Amino acid sequence: MAVKSVSIRIEEEMLEKLGYVAEYEGRSLNSQILVLVRECIQKYEADHGEISGRVKPDVNVKPSGRY
Description:
The structure is a single chain. The chain has 67 residues and is mostly helical. Helices cover 51% and strands 0% of the residues. It contains two helices and no strands. Helix 1 packs across helix 2. The chain is globular, with a radius of gyration of 13 Å.
C-alpha cells in the first residue's frame, strides 16, 4: 500500500489543542489525525453505505492500545 503525504492549513491554537489530545491518548499528532480520519470515514459509511475502494479505513491506522 502506498503512503501519501498531505499538507493542511490549520490555526495554531487548534493544532496545539490537537497535539494536547494526541499526547493524552499516547499518540503522535500524525497518528491522532489518522484516527480522526478513520472515524470520519467509518461514520460516513455507517450513514451512507460503504465507499468502494481497495483499502478499508481500519487497516490504515493502528489502534492506540488503550482499550
